[in-house]
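Q: How would the structure tokens look for this protein?
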Amino acid sequence: MKKTIYIALSAVILGLTSCEDQLDQKPVSSTTAESFYTNTNDFTQAVNGVYSKLTSYPSQVLWLGEMRSDNLNVLHDGNRDWQGINDFSPNITTTGFIASAWNDNFNGIFNANSVLQALETKGSIITDATLRSRFTAETRFLRAFYYFQLVRTFGKVPLVEKPLTAAEVESVPRSAVADIYKLIIADLEFAVQNLPASYTGVNIGRATNNAAKGLLGLVYLTRSGTTYNIEGAGLNSNEYDKALTLFNEVIASNQYQLLPNYSSVFAYDNENNKEVIFDVQFMSSSNGAGFPSHLAPVAFWTGQGISNAYGNGYGASNFNISKELKALYLTNASDVRNAFNIQLSYSQPFIKKYIDVAKRGTNGRDWSINFIVLRYADILLLKAEAILKGAKGTQTEVDALVNQVRNRAGLPSISNVTFDTLLEERRKEFLGEGTRWNDLVRSGNAVTKMNSWIKNDGILTINAVTSDFLIYPVPATEIGTKVGLYQQNPGYN
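A: Here is the predicted structure in token form.
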């Protein structure tokens, strides 16, 4: 699938690109779209083009999630795009990472809507009804994925369910989060019913019905989170039983398992393994990933004999592991994730779980490692979370779920796991996978925990965290497109 899924259509057709520097949303004439679809392969390419927008997902969850969380205390070294994100500055409406998150997800939605419209008008070209249904389900899964990213990042966003012209886009206001969720849930429910359980050959890596179930379960958990009195992702909807049902179905499918060795989950020669439920596919040279290089500082790469490190895309800054997190890892010397996840021998420890220097490509933006979005360990711990939050289940079940993950890491079993304990277990397990920030927000304790961490780690550069900062500002370019169409999220200048 790596050789096919991110082969994008011509920019003339859908404005797609397979590189990480995405284009702004560009509407396309119905005449051009109509003339493109002449056979099943054209639809295959179009669906692959919708997947192609996933390539920016690692940047979003690392620079807007991991960077925002208590996992990282970065070294100030100038006016960088990420600096205001890390510092909880109110002056980040022009920050590139934020604008890219808005544009990339809406590009994905536009591409999805274009394909869904073509499936409605010309889908009969696909004579295999099962394949036609699968294409629709994959596309709706991806549209839901992109909208879920937008809701967690920005709160209210425009709700667009069909391709629009530039003039039409400028008349669409931001919709209530509850309305965005209606579309997300409808799309994922359709995907659950119409996606296969697995794929073979070049199709391995496409969305499955269990990926849809896992994502929908996380959607229900997120909706159930506290509102913080902001228009963010939490609606206090108390849908933990719905989430639990979906996680149970993923587990009962027997499609997945915890790999015996933690590091093998992320091995370059073991991608799409039995623990992976959904990931972003990267391939060296034609579609290489850049995120492994960006996590380590220039000094590390030069120490590896890689000259002109920054110019070649290797590193830029010191994204240091926080003192609190380092201490949490080192509390148990037997935890196999210590040495694998963190470069402990370096003067400023950083995330290294994706770095295998021998597997680097032609430059720092050319790594062939996939980025895992959802894996079986996540499902186990999300199930434990649902039970602790009120879904039907017992403390014994919670303990057993958490201990499966702990034991794989080389840690002894524990009992009477609390919600705070669960959060810390997730923090150690998923470092560098972009889950921590959303975990904190979903927990209802993000403001308290972040401010406590800032104080305890003795950090002087990060502003006090308020509820307003739990979502990001609408990019300034969007605010300025049409005066009065959008109101800026509170707390931002």
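The longest strand covers residues 276-280.

The beta strands are 157-158, 174-175, 276-280, 371-375.

Upvote if useful.
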